[in-house]
Amino acid sequence: MSSPNYDYLDGNAAAGELSRVFAVDITTATGRCAECGTTKCLAEAHLYMHGPGLVARCPACEHVLLRLVNVREHMFLDVRGMTYLCLDASHSEEAS
Amino acid sequence: MMWRAGTVVALHDETPTARTITLQVADWPSHVAGQHVDVRLTAPDGYSAVRSYSIASPPNAEGRVELTVERLSDGEVSPYLTQELAVGDRLELRGPIGGWFVWQSRQAEPIQLIAGGSGIVPLMAMIRSRASAGSTEPFRLLYSVREPGAVFYRDELQAISDGVDSVTLTYAYTRAIPRGWPRPPGRIDASVIAETTWPSKLIPTCYVCGPTSFVESTAALLVGCGNRPDKIRTERFGPTGGRK
């Protein structure tokens, strides 16, 4: 499905908010879409930021991959749209 | 990642609507060309707004971060940053952010940069980073811009393009052209891509930055000219052509 309104950014733009949750930059991690199986960097997802949080969708099928919502003092993270997220662990010692 | 305070040490107008803000940031961990920062403004009543801006300056050990901000008339943050901010003011920054849309000096392949309007900013960081690293890797820049007066970093780009080991620079004007310019104003199309970008057989890495519609059409044209989708990295600014 395409988005004729072009109202999205790249997953790359979510790196700041996601750094509040993860010790490493997960926008460079590879995620597999639970719907269509497309496997790409999270930085390449289509990112929608005009709701109460941020939503990353698969660039191939627009299935929701990740949601991060702030509600008062809590953050809700939903990553069930991905079957896995593969991170580069080679620098994890220094990164964390 | 924590918020840091940056002090404005210089302001420079690039165009009537865009300003470069130079910040001195204590304990800045340095950055990689192409990364961005989040800027947070907080009003006296506690209301705060966060926006992302690409870093224009090359990596450096001095804690110096330059941002070039385009003013959007309906913006909430950019009018303040481009009109009211003064030398000596402080801004809150979170960053450097993003490890995907980056160029590192160890990359040895041809690099194709394509900017739409203010999308030039992170690509300028790459060009400056190439120069400060003493790299002579082959770079080309295709810069799509409304009119000659809307070009950012004009003199610096000209000097780099005139120098030895230069970056090949091509402008594509969308609304108004300089006198005698060979192409009528218009969007980047397949012929511009074919004539001015690296041949796809060289397998360049392409960095495309601009408004979302610009990035969509340009990435499709690059693929149409035989470039590999996995060698095209994109950074979209959204439908308005800038970050408010």
Key words describing this protein structure:
heterodimer; A: 96 residues; mainly beta; 5-stranded antiparallel beta sheet; 3-stranded antiparallel beta sheet; 8% helix; globular; B: 244 residues; alpha/beta; Elongation Factor Tu (Ef-tu), domain 3; Rossmann fold; 5-stranded parallel beta sheet; 5 helices
Task: Summarize the entry for a quick read.
With 96 residues, chain A is mostly beta strands. Chain A has helices at residues 15-18, 92-95, and strands spanning 9-10, 30-33, 39-41, 46-48, 53-57, 64-71, 74-78, 82-86. Chain A has one domain.
Structural class of chain A: mainly beta
Task: Give the C-alpha Rg of chain B.
Answer: 18 Å
The figure for the number of domains of chain A is: 1
Sum up the overall morphology of chain B in one term.
Answer: globular
Number of helices of chain A: 2
Sheet with the most strands: spatial strand order of chain B: 4-3-6-1-2-5
Helix content of chain A: under 10%
Any idea of the CATH topology of the largest domain in chain B? Rossmann fold
User: Could you estimate the helical fraction of the residues of chain B in percent?
Assistant: 10-25%
Q: Which two protein chains have the largest interface (Cβ within 8 Å of the partner's Cβ), and how many residues from each?
A: A-B, 19 and 23 residues
Approximate strand percentage of chain B: 25-35%
Number of helices, where a helix is a run of at least 4 consecutive DSSP H or I residues of chain B: 5
Oligomeric state of the chains present here: heterodimer
> Mean pLDDT of chain B, nearest integer?
93
- Main sheet specs of chain B: 6 strands, antiparallel
